[in-house]
Task: structure prediction
Amino acid sequence: MRRQAYSYRSDASVPAFADDKPLIVFDGECVLCSGWVRFLLRYDRRARYRYLTAQSPIGQALYRHYGLDAGSFESNLLIEDGVARFKSDGSIRTLARLGLPWPLVNVCRILPAALRDSLYDLVAKNRYRIAGRRQSCMVPTPEERGRFIA
Result:
């Protein structure tokens, strides 16, 4: 769903949050999704991104704001400069901003978005079977805590 940049700021159901850095909203109970965030924490050496679990009140509100299912969390959400990106577009953009060699992932954009998103959806629908599910959301280490929004 396309919306104007920072549209969530005027949505009374979305609590205010720090949006001065790109934000990744992810399924904190999904082992695969948490692994994605662990990967990003490791390679995001400039601490460019902040993270938020989809199960949190802000995460839930953002999913609803963008018309996503706030119960299944089948798409990570990248909010950068107030603009939300979903599925393969959000993942490719996230990786490409990490610095070398990760911008090479932009070559994936030669594939039609419908094909990329179909592959994304296939993994998303089966992510618990592929990697498992935690009983509770991922808990950041004390060193990582400042990069997460509660």
About this structure: The domain at 7-132 is CATH 3.40.30 (Glutaredoxin). The chain has one domain: 7-132. The mean pLDDT is 91.
